[in-house]
Each structure stands twice: as structure tokens, then as C-alpha cells.
Amino acid sequence: MNETDTSAIDTDGAPRIHPPTLAGAMLLGGLLLHLLGRSRYPLVHPHQLLGLLLVAGGVALMVYAAALFAARDTTKNPYGEPTSFVVMMPYTFTRNPMYVGVTATLLGLAIFFGSIVMLLAPVVFFVVLDRMVIPNEEASMERLFGQRYLDYKARVRRWL
Predict the structure, then answer these.
(1) Which of 32, 118, 121, 130 has minimal CB crowding within 10 Å?
(2) Could you state, in order of their start, the residue ranges of all structural domains in the chain?
(3) Quick check: 123 pLDDT over 50?
């Protein structure tokens, strides 16, 4: 399978979920729900600073982790065929730093807006990836990199 494969259904009949599309949908849905119940409040609150820090950290982690994949010319597509096994920081403390970055970004936005309903976005994103996307990626990695990946998987946590 290559990165240009746009089939919406996986070979086992399950729908393909693309993390950036899911994150965007979760963000838009959360913002819409937030705006529907919007209230007025002062310009800056401490929770907004915390939210911005989470967004900045999440984006930085996501971009850096993706750049490591790009530097090794391996796919970022969760349904693509990896050509390299990247095992350097931040992949030494989480097997999925791009997903951790997106989750942190979604959480940071919910905190920034002080929105309980926007907290659904990072939770749904986390659960869908953890149950439907990451197991596929792990199966590919096990098939391609064998014991080396299994040893890595035993050493490094899936999330944090």
C-alpha cells in the first residue's frame, strides 16, 4: 500500500480513519458546540495560558516527530508501508508522539476556550486512534521489523 492509496475501506472491511482528518473534525465539532453555549468573559484567564502552552507543546511535538519521519523518507500515513524504524527522541518515551501532540493540541484548545464540550474532541480522538488506528500500525511494524519492534514495544509505552 502506498501513501496515495485513497480507498476509504481497509482490506478487512473497516473504515480507514486518517488522524489529521479526525482531529480537524473533532476540533470543528468542539468549537461549534462551544460557540452554541458561549458566554462572555474577560480577555485573558490563567487557563487560557495553560491551554496555549499545551497547544504550543503539542504542535511542536507533532511537527518534530513528523520531521523525523520525513528525514528518513518513511510514511506518516497510518495505512502506508513504513520503510524505516525510527527509535530516537521523542520515540524513546512514546511510540506515538505525533498522536500525543495532536491530542495535547486538542486538549489545549479545550482548556483555552474553557469549554467542557470541547473536551470531547481529545477524548474521542484518543479512543478512536487507540482502538482502531494504532493496532493496524503496530501489526505492520511487527510484520516488517519483527523482534526488534517487539522489544521496542516492550520498552516504550503506546502513549505516555
Answers:
(1) 32
(2) 26-35+42-155
(3) yes
SS3 15: strand
Query: Residue 20: which pLDDT band, with cuts at 50, 70 and 90?
Result: confident
What is the 8-class DSSP label of residue 130?
I
Q: What is each CA distance from 114 to 35, 40, 136, in whole angstroms?
A: 11, 11, 34
Query: What grid cell was written down for 130?
Result: 487507540
Question: Residue 89: how many CB atoms within 10 A of its CB?
Answer: 10
Which residue, 128, 143, 141, is CA-closest to 18? 128
Say what the pTM is: 0.78
CA dist list (Å): 105 to 30, 54, 55, 85, 101: 13, 6, 4, 25, 6
SS3 call for 9 = strand
How far apart, in whole angstroms, are the C-alpha atoms of residue 17 and residue 120? 18
